[in-house]
Amino acid sequence: MNGWLIYTISDSIRNKSYIDWFIDEAKKQFIDLVLLRREDISIGIHHNKPVIYANGEEITADFAVVRTIDPLLNKQLEQMGITVFNKPIISETFNHKAYGYLAVQQLGISVPETYYFPANLTPSSPPLDFPFVAKTAAGKGGDQVVMLDHQKEWEAYCQSTTEAFVVQSPKNIQPGKDLRVFVIGKDIIAAVLRENANDFRANYSLGGKASLYTLNKTEKRTVQKIIDAYDFGLVGIDFMFTNAGELIFNEIEDAVGSRTLSKLSDINILKEYITYIKEKML
């Protein structure tokens, strides 16, 4: 069995140790997993069939783990008969915050009061009272999340952004606190609580602290509703907390990292993920 681990060049440099770990775990289970850099490949249609080329040659594999946000690539691979982790429906839906909120709200799960806008099509007056949060629809990691406090900041944000974005009310939501639930297939692997006393964003990369978290029965049921509705590979389902301590959906990370989980536990999530991939391929 052979597979591709697809990263952009910049992400492959930044995540070298994770990639090495991934490839090593695959080798232990007799899977030949190789790194494929997104910039080195071309996808398209040739002689009326979908193809993928690398260095001028047509290539193929049994499966691909796509670790970059590229829904079209996921769809192309699937149409070529290559099993993709995560599936195109996951990449398309959850790498756009508005699509993600619409999908999860349909499951009867609470989401924040949210409005969404395409780039350059915004009202002069926002639909929320200040202050509120603005997030690029495709942003990851918290660095494209800002708090807007007044009309001039809103106007400046609308003029400067070149991407679709969402705005979100912070009312009844605890600032600087969120929960990431790691999921493989239909199984909850672990949950990590992230807290930041100095920022409304809880991201570990922005100076927050993290700890393992035990989901209660109600929280497990909420997570299970999402798991039952989708065919996930490995994802991180992120929630915020209301002032009453209840979970409220935030986003689903398609190409989720596990650095924090590895620091907090001895869970070998890539071993479990490779085992899952192998079972799906047999």
Automatic annotation (TrEMBL):
InterPro entries: ATP-grasp, ATP-grasp_RimK-type. Residues 101-278 form the ATP-grasp domain. It comes from Oceanobacillus jeddahense. SUPFAM superfamilies: Glutathione synthetase ATP-binding domain-like (SSF56059). Keywords: ATP-binding, Nucleotide-binding. PROSITE patterns: ATP_GRASP. Gene3D superfamilies: 3.40.50.20, ATP-grasp fold, B domain. This is ATP-grasp domain-containing protein.
